Amino acid sequence: MELSRNERWKLVALGAAIAVGAAVIAVKVVATDPAEQPPATALVKSSLATPPGRSITLDIHELSDNEGEVLLSMPTTLDAYYGYAGVLDAGERIIVATGLPLPTVDPAASGAEISAVTLVGVDPKDGASQWRTPVGRVSSCDQQFDGGVLACWGDRRVVFVDADDGTLLSDIGTDFDLSGVTVDGDVVYASGSVDGAPVLTRGTTLDPVRDDRRVFETAPDSWVYPVPDRGVAVGSVRGDGTPQYVYSVYDLDSGAKEFTFEGDSLLPVGDDLYLSSIGSESGTVGTQNLLAADGSILGPVPIPSYGAGRYPSSPSVSEPLFLGDGAYDPDTGDELWRNPAMVIGQFSGKNSAVAAVVGKTVIVTDPEAKTISGLDIESGRQRWQIPWEDAYWVRDGLTDGEYFVFGDYKGTHAISARDGTIAWSMPQLEGVDPPMVSVSSAGGTMMVSSGSVFTFWS
Fold it and tell me: Does residue 212 register a pLDDT over 60?
C-alpha cells in the first residue's frame, strides 16, 4: 500500500517513537458514497493478465553529464551515499536524485558525503530525462508528494520545484532547523525545532511562514508534525519512564489543544480516530487501543500487531481499517469482523499478514503454512487459498484492479484476486540479489528494483 499523506508524514516525524513503539499503519479511509470510486494505490491502467514487456533500465550515464555521479536514495538520505538508490513516483513520470560522492579519508566510513544534489524528471517509458534541476545540498524531499510541487530541504533551507517541468520556484532560508516540509494544495507546512523547542509553520512556496509560526514548549526529545487531512497537529515529548511519551493533539488552524495522551505511540487512523500503544519499550507490540477524536478510549484491539508497511490497494467497496486480526469501521471504530489469518507471528509479536487489497479480496500470506489466501473484504471469510513455498518473501507489488503482481525470492508473479489462480510468473533478472529485489509501481508502470538497479516494464 502507498501510504496516505498523513501516514507518510508520521513515519518521518515519529522517528524514535516508532522505532520502539508499535509502528502501526492503517489503510486510508475511503468514501462511503458508492457512486465515488474508492482510492487506489500502486495501481496501473494496463492489464496485468499477461506479463508486461521489458521496457528500460535506468542508466546514470543517460541522466547525468558528470562522470562519477550516482543515483541517490530519493526521497531521503540525499546528503550521503551508501550504495543504494530510490525513485519518487510522480504520476506519469518518476523523479530521481543524482549527486557526486565526495572522497573520504576514513576507511571505516560506510557512506560518502554528497555536497550537491540534482533532481531529474524521467519518462519511465524510455528512460529519457524530461528536466534536470540542481538544488544544492539537501537531505530529504517530501515523501507526501502527490504531484504538483515538490519540497526538498536540508538544515535551514528549503527549495520548491515544479514537478511538471522542473522549474525551481523558490529557494528559502529559515531561522529554525527543518525536519519536514510538505505541500498540501496551495498551503505549505514546515516543522522543525529551534533551541530545543518544536516549531510548526504554515505559508506558501514563496514564504513558508507567511500565515502562521507556532513555537511549542522546550522539552527533551520533543517534536510536532501536521496532519492536514485531519486538520490537526500532533506533538510529543519524552516522558519520565512508562509510558515513554506524552502526546498532544492540537487543532491545526487555531492551535487549541484537543487532548493529551500518555503512551508509546499515537497514530491518527480512520476518520477522527487514533491508535495508541502502551508497553512497547522492549520491542514488543504492547497493548493497543482505539481512541475517539477527543482522546477517550473506544476499546482495545484484541490482537495487537505491527501494521502492514505498504501494499497495493484497489478496493471495489469501502475499505475498513485493518488492525491486528480484525477489520474496523473507519468512522466509528466498531469491529466488523476478525480472522486469525490477518496476522502472522514474529519474534517481537504479531505482524500484519495483509499483502494487498484488490476488488473485494484481502490477500494475506502465511509464511509458516506457506500459503497465500484471499479473504472476503466484507465478511472476512476465506474465499480461496493456494500453497506458496516463498510466502515469507511476498511483499510490495502492484495491481490493475484484478490481478496482484508481487515479488518473492524466485521472481515476479501475478495472482488473480478473484480465485487465486497464478496468471504468469517470470524469473529474477540475472545477477540480482533476491533479498534486495522489490516489485512495485512507479510512473504508471511495473518497476523491479534491486539496490541501485531499476527496471521498468510496460
Answer: yes
Sheet holding 411-416, edge to edge: 395-399, 403-407, 411-416, 422-427
Q: How many CA atoms does the CB half-sphere of 367 hold within 13 Å?
A: 16
pTM of the model: 0.88
HEC profile for 335-346? EEEECHHHEEEE
Residues facing 376 on adjacent strands: 361
Provide the 10 A C-beta neighbour count for residue 435.
Answer: 9
Cβ–Cβ < 8 Å for 176, 169: no
40 has a pLDDT exceeding 80? no
Residue 233 vs residue 431, higher pLDDT: 233
**What was the pLDDT predicted at 281?**
63
Asked if 414 contacts 48 with a C-beta cutoff of 8 angstroms, the reply is yes
Report how far residue 261's alpha carbon sits from residue 255's, in angstroms, rounded to the nearest whole number.
17
Residues of the chain with pLDDT > 90, as a percent, come to 67
Nearest to 170 by CA among 203, 207, 115: 207
What amino acid is encoded at 281 in this protein? E
Rounded to whole angstroms, how far apart are CA atoms 327 and 338? 6
Task: Calculate mean pLDDT across residues 118-132.
Answer: 93
Quick one: residue 221, left, alpha or beta (phi over 0 = left, psi -120 to 50 = alpha)?
A: left
pLDDT of residue 10: 35
Confidence (pLDDT) at 27? 33
Three-state SS for 220-244 is CCCEEEEECCCCEEEEEEECCCCCC
Q: What share of the chain is helix, strand, coil (3-state, %, to 5)?
A: 5, 50, 45
Lowest-pLDDT choice from 5-9, 151-155, 368-372: 5-9
User: Grid coordinates 515538490 are at which residue?
Assistant: 150
**Ramachandran angles phi, psi of 435, nearest 5°:** -65, -20
Long-range contacts of 248-252 (CB under 8 A, 24+ apart): 249/274, 249/295, 250/224, 252/226, 252/227, 252/228
CA-CA distance, 441 to 56, in Å (whole number)? 14
pLDDT of residue 32: 29
Rounded Cα distance between 279 and 263, Å, is 8
pLDDT the model gives residue 221: 87
* Segments of 123-194 assigned E as strands: 129-136, 140-141, 149-154, 157-162, 168-173, 177-184, 187-194
Grid coordinates of 148: 504538483
